[in-house]
């Protein structure tokens, strides 16, 4: 457990490299307010990352960075990680979903699922669900999903979810980014029905570098990981975590420079979100991992016209309107 109460206890999945590592570094620098949990698949790389961040920020005395290791290619590891998080970091109130892979050739996990789908999407689906009660209890809380404009590349093929018939690494990657985008929006709606109305927020950021930066020498990178701190969204992610003016902003999509942009039609399609959610739940159940949370509502309460209409809908359908407090106008 963090030795003292920090304003934020922040989990960053996939923080041992690339953008996730940069975010961890930036957030750790604010050592009076932020406690940062670096996640990665290997304990050795995690502990090296923590040491680097501590050294770069001269934080030897300020132990505000820890790590948790779990391989997202195994569902049991993710379940174990969720339990470990609850015990070690009970004040968790910020969840940045960043871990992701782009795999050249189709391969399957030990659980028999397409590897990219499992690492990029299903693991996050499980973790989001498992951590929601803690995030709600520790509100104000923020969920930030690191996405990509590639999510608009294709739609989900439910007849070939595991890409057995057709595997294209970019298509499969883009689909997993779409899935995370849709699930984040579904969580936003789910939170709304819990009556927490914007004390727990859920947003997506497109970490794609803006086209105008493509010739910027400061962005040249020897590896596929970004080195440019201006264009890859690190600054925007930091704002989504810390900025007071974004405390009640939820269900939104931002570009890497922080501008709010429109999600694709499919990403905000509530029926599509519902179908994906149910599919994920079934997959978790088939792996003996029951989803710890109920499904999001099938109707977007935000689109019901008025908050009174939403309340009426809740009373008629979900019986949770007693927890639904109308926000002050
Ligand atoms: N880079 C881009 O061009 C770009 C553009 C738009 C959006 N994005 C998004 O930005 C995020 C970061 O991308 P990036 O390119 O910076 O990533 P990256 O450098 O490739 O780092 C990926 C991270 O995910 C972790 N990871 C990989 N496989 C894992 C597994 N089986 N279990 C647990 N963790 C695992 C890695 O851990 P290890 O260190 O152990 O491998 C690493 O920490 C992603 O969500 C990506 O979709 C990136």
UniProtKB/TrEMBL annotation:
InterPro entries (alphabetical): NAD(P)-bd_dom_sf, SDR_fam
GO MF term set: oxidoreductase activity
Gene3D superfamilies found in the cross-reference section: NAD(P)-binding Rossmann-like Domain (3.40.50.720)
Pfam families: adh_short
Highest taxon listed in the record's lineage: Eukaryota
Keywords attached to this entry: Oxidoreductase
PANTHER family hit by this protein: PHOSPHATIDYLINOSITOL-GLYCAN BIOSYNTHESIS CLASS F PROTEIN, PHOSPHATIDYLINOSITOL-GLYCAN BIOSYNTHESIS CLASS F PROTEIN-RELATED
UniProt protein name: NAD(P)-binding protein
